[in-house]
């Protein structure tokens, strides 16, 4: 292997909140969610090419159906790499895990390209908000203690900090203080990444980059007090991770996807 090859960054794709449904016609506020996911995937391949790893960060299905998870797996066959799927509030964990296992995507820990990826399940059956069970927090600590010198990305579905979108204040991660007390003990954590908020979010906290990403279907209006959807195109997040712990990231959108969003909706 040449020195140039060893310096190649790990290319990681985050796809989030696709809200797929059992029916191929399934739509959220007028947007066909399979079509929008496939438009995002086409944009990834045209703009960035093949990733080395895909993180699918929850609300993979709107209806928790096996058909929806199979549709996700089939869409991901456009990529040559592994993916890892986590649950959001709309998912049904048993079905998700069963189908994810068929696609080799039922993973909660990976070490690749000199980075560690820890995937946490913050879903609470029947609830919109998130919470990390003791078992998830224990797993997080165990992995961080076992890999003290490995730059780390931690991902979950729910937002673990306040965002400037008031109607979402009560539907983030409830036990976030416990989460941050743990993260604060481990300086190798470089990134905390989530979905759920259907919008771009980028901040820093104690040197940790806090990142969230548009949905592959509909978008919520940043800064809105009430439920509100924005007509921004579906999107994804791309990372280039160096083994040193340095990284770049950007959010991109499916530029040629045409859709008619029901902007008068007051919720779903
Ligand atoms: N008008 C609304 N007010 C509050 N919450 C809502 C409203 N409409 C939908 N929701 C919930 O808020 C969630 C935010 O993102 P989800 O896609 O998880 O699913 C959404 C619904 O469960």
TrEMBL record:
It holds the Pfam family Metallophos. It comes from the Bacteria. Residues 10-199 form the Calcineurin-like phosphoesterase domain. Keywords: Hydrolase, Iron, Metal-binding. Gene3D superfamilies: 3.60.21.10. Belongs to the cyclic nucleotide phosphodiesterase class-III family. This is 3',5'-cyclic-AMP phosphodiesterase. It comes from Marinobacter xiaoshiensis. The gene is cpdA.
